Automatic annotation (TrEMBL):
CDD domains: Trans_IPPS_HH. GO terms for biological process: carotenoid biosynthetic process. This is Phytoene synthase. GO terms for molecular function: geranylgeranyl diphosphate synthase activity; squalene synthase [NAD(P)H] activity.
């Protein structure tokens, strides 16, 4: 197994290839936190790629062996958490950051449950199902990232518990943005993360939502999803204010970058999928500057009130997961 320095170098290359937006924001963390963030990101990226038979989030590969790939993710993750070599630097890196920051099997299982939902060709029935998926593939990652940034366990600590809730909320906001941005790519891969109830109410037949004739109702659904994203983002800004300065700056910069992508899709209306929305290097620098300003001020007025509109929070997602049998 490679040593920590080699694993960090591998993780840095991974985030540089896998997410230019998060790679840019990650440079704002202090060195120790930055390296840990990279290590956690590399596991998330490797597991996601393995689950979808893809490379760095690219086109989906052959999905016929999804359950076998899911079993590999479980096996390598368990080995990593036990401090054993896995044969994969991204999973070995998870073992390092888990030991340093107290990441647990249960935390990893919450994320892997999202891959299991895709492996089962799962579709969200309603809004809460859509948010449940966002929780597993991104909200649970937000909780792990908060632990990496030094947020303590929530056992008996009300403030820590609330901060972890809001870290989860940021992941959900990011994933809602991903859903609206990637509607075209997901449709090409035979996937759709918009609630079935929304499609039925709009009289859109299954698998037809990207047809030009349905663009008007599709735009209305994107607006609903973006409104939800802003609600969760408002909550996340309250939690970010409690982080150390460098972490606060990095997270608020990432919030600006990812939020801008969702706003571009929303603002483009029926043309939101003419090309894949992204932020330019110049725009990223603007959001880094905006993140710096935001990190030196209290959360914007109205965040607390807006955050009350969240339909579900971390504990609610955990309860739904138990009730509905969503498990890694």
């Amino acid at each position: 197994m490679q040593d920590r320095t080699q694993l960090v170098a591998h993780a840095r290359r991974t985030i540089a290839r896998g997410s230019k937006s998060f790679a840019a924001a990650s440079m704002l963390f202090d060195r120790v936190t930055r390296e840990r963030v990279w290590l956690l990101y590399a596991w998330c990226r490797a597991a996601d790629d393995l689950a979808d038979a893809q490379d760095m989030g690219g086109d989906l590969g052959d999905q016929s062996e999804a359950e076998a790939r899911l079993a590999t993710i479980r096996e390598r993750t368990a080995l990593a958490l036990a401090g054993q070599p896995t044969g994969d630097a991204s999973f070995d890196g998870l073992g390092v950051v888990a030991a340093e920051c107290g990441l647990t099997q249960a935390m990893c299982d919450d994320v892997i449950a999202g891959f299991a939902m895709d492996a089962a060709d799962w579709r969200p029935r309603d809004r809460d199902d859509m948010l449940q998926y966002c929780y597993h593939v991104a909200g649970a990652v937000g909780v792990m990232m908060a632990k990496v940034m030094g947020v303590p366990d929530d056992d008996g600590d009300t403030l820590a518990s609330d901060t972890l809730d809001r870290a989860c909320d940021l992941g959900i906001a990011f994933q809602l943005g991903n859903i609206v941005r990637d509607l075209w790519e997901d449709d090409a891969a035979g996937r759709c993360y918009l609630p079935v109830e929304w499609l039925v109410e709009a009289d859109i037949p299954p698998g037809q939502h990207m047809k030009p004739i349905y663009r008007e109702p599709l735009v209305a659904m994107v607006q609903q999803a973006c409104l939800l994203a802003r609600t969760y983002e408002a909550s996340a800004r309250i939690g970010a204010a409690r982080l150390p300065f460098r972490s606060r700056w990095a997270i608020l910069s990432a919030t600006g970058i990812y939020g801008a992508i969702a706003r571009k899709v929303e603002d483009a209306g029926e043309h939101g999928w003419d090309h894949r929305a992204f932020t330019s290097r110049f725009e990223k620098l603007g959001h880094v500057a905006g993140g710096l300003r935001a990190s030196m001020a209290p959360p914007p007025e109205g965040c607390a009130e807006q955050a009350k509109g969240r339909p579900l929070t971390r504990l609610g997602f955990a309860e739904r997961a138990r009730e509905k049998g969503y498990a890694a």
